[in-house]
Amino acid sequence: MRIAVIGGGPGGLYFAALVKRRQPEHQVTVWERNAPEDTFGFGVVLSDETLGGIEEADPELYAELAAGFARWDDIDVHLPGGQVFTSGGHGFAATSRRRLLGLLQERCRVLGVELRFQEEAPPAAELARSHDVVVAADGVRSRTRAAAAEVYRPELDERHCRYIWLGTDLVFDAFQFHVLRTEHGVMQLHGYPYSDAGSTVIVEMREDVWRRAGLDRMDEQESVAACEKLFADTLRGHALRGNDSRWIAFTTVRNVTWSDGTTVLLGDAAHTAHFSIGSGTKLAMEDAVALADALHTHASVPQALAAYEEERRPVVASTQRAAQASLEWFENLEQYLDQPGWQLAFNLLTRSRRITHDNLRLRDPGYVAEAEQEFAAAGTPPMFTPFRLRGLTLRNRVVVSPMDMYSAQDGLPDDFHLVHLGSRALGGAGLVMTEMVCVAPEGRITLGCTGLWNDEQRDAWARITGFVHERSGAAIGLQLGHSGRKGATKLMWEGMDDPLPAEQAWPLVGPSPLAYRPDGGQVPAALTREQLGELKEQFVAAARRGAEAGFDLLELHCAHGYLLSSFLSPLANRREDEYGGPLENRLRWPLEVFDAMRAVWPGDRPMTVRISATDWAEGGNDTEEAVVIAAAFAAHGADAIDVSTGQVVSHERPAFGRSYQTPFADAIRNRVRVPVIAVGAVSSWDDVNSLLLAGRADLVALGRPHLYDPAWTLHAAAEQEWSGPGVEWPVQYAAGSRRPQTGRRL
């Protein structure tokens, strides 16, 4: 084959060398517009996984690289006030970018790759007419991608920080994070060694801080001098140097597809991931291995390109999620500066969600033990520490999330609900929440929803709370709500959000006459002021019955597009009276309902509020609005905010992923200074411990894991070999408190 490579960075060169090594008869040409000795940046960090792939794919290149690696194990976190926290056992390897490129260039020459430096590559479409494969490794500002944007359909997300890539002759002995509080705002330095003669230094800050500091008006030399002055203590008298260094706003690149005919994107042209997890060169070189393998093992180029993308896309997506979490953490670093130093350091180390509490304990058990000691007691898993809300002390930090069961008749909970909630209370959780209990028949989502609009329902709930109190050490919470414009739908397993037949449905109400499903859903009637007063009284009456039924905690459901949630969202609330318009007005009626319920709810029992912290839709509520909403409820006496997201509009576009909703809880907790319950794709006890120890949440609610395993909390204790406070096996189940053997030896 004739193969053209556009771009002579690490990814393009490595691919060229690999494909030529595999099949020397291929004609491989690399175009690079810069000179061979030109390079930007300083050091490159490679993971053990990437190095293993290099060793397997090209042992000769690996041997050359390994001979000059800088290696270290520690991460140092330097905080304002001089606090330093060190975590070991991480294992890094780095080399200079210039050395890496030199080795790759020489490897290409030895293998017979044609290298054309200081020569602009012809357009990919032109090269494709004379080559079997065109590999576009032309970087984040890829001309190839731009020329065929209608095919690749790129999404370019420019972020909110500015950073500059510099070097120094100070050789760091660890990966360095330095947090600096200045009169202009928070700045941070990322630093790591790449040889026995120098280190990479990246200075980063939010754009508004960058502008206030006047750095936007400085050239390279002035910027270097300013950074030297700002981080003089870190540099200990050593100088910084630039290399065509500029202040950059990081751009996250994603593409719907990576290939166009026989042209394929590689590395930053296809995808980027923030430098704070050291992934750009790593991803490009891993792409090179996968693409070379695919071309070698598949019969046709289209099959090879499809296989390459199929293999790499999930890996890249996972890395990009971790990188996104990391970059957003640094964008919002200022919100954590009031955390205790030990917690801020742990928070930084676990920011990407890839490094966790248990993972850190494997790497550096002493570091984690010290953090646990600060949190509660060394050796105690954070999830098994108690938490107090008003007069209620929960035995541990695990919450069984509210989950609709759609199994009631006329709103009446029955034996199913007793077994469902009772089994999860016996399963060890600190707090078990009911599903959304509706305050009126017309407030149900489905015909199977439970209610609390009459005394018969109150007495049925009292039977359940009595069982929980008598037979377990759990608390039980009541979530009250009204379906609003999302009511009168079929049971979930019959068609989620599908409207009931007209003869079974009831009229819907909402803040405005806007259907949840524009494709045929019922249009709600806009509520009058008189109706708002009547509805408020329904909430109050249900709260009274909840107290009489013996619930320990009351939660007001202001999330997921139900009635109170739709008042909060500008996408559902188009009113022109005092309950619509700006957020202050949209908050008014939900706060009135909360105040009225708080007035009748016992003073020693806590009240929480569940909110959708983002609508996941343009023009809707997002983090900033969520902070205001949470602060308003906290000011009115909410003891905690239960932070969920979405389900407010049918055209939402959620960014699903592991613990994808927790950053919103994190922002509310650390900006509003109110306890929060985190929810959303949290499935492991390790994640629960990580969120708590990092100070991103006070309680963690899990739904699906408790459907899979009603005794999830007890099993989490067994898996951590924990039998101390915070966990109590029912005496009837005590024989099962250790993991069963999975096999026997003769």
TrEMBL record:
Q: What positions does the domain NADH:flavin oxidoreductase/NADH oxidase N-terminal occupy?
A: 383-717
Is Oxidoreductase a UniProt keyword of this protein?
yes
Listed name of the protein: Anthraniloyl-CoA monooxygenase
MF terms from GO for this chain are: FAD binding; FMN binding; monooxygenase activity; NADP binding; NADPH dehydrogenase activity
Tell me which Pfam families the record gives: FAD_binding_3, Oxidored_FMN
Under the heading CDD domains, the entry gives: OYE_YqiM_FMN (cd02932)
Q: Which SUPFAM superfamilies match?
A: FAD/NAD(P)-binding domain, FMN-linked oxidoreductases
Q: Which residues form the FAD-binding domain?
A: 134-320
InterPro entries for this protein: Aldolase_TIM, FAD-bd, FAD/NAD-bd_sf, OxRdtase_FMN_N, YqjM-like
List UniProt keywords, sorted A-Z: Monooxygenase, Oxidoreductase
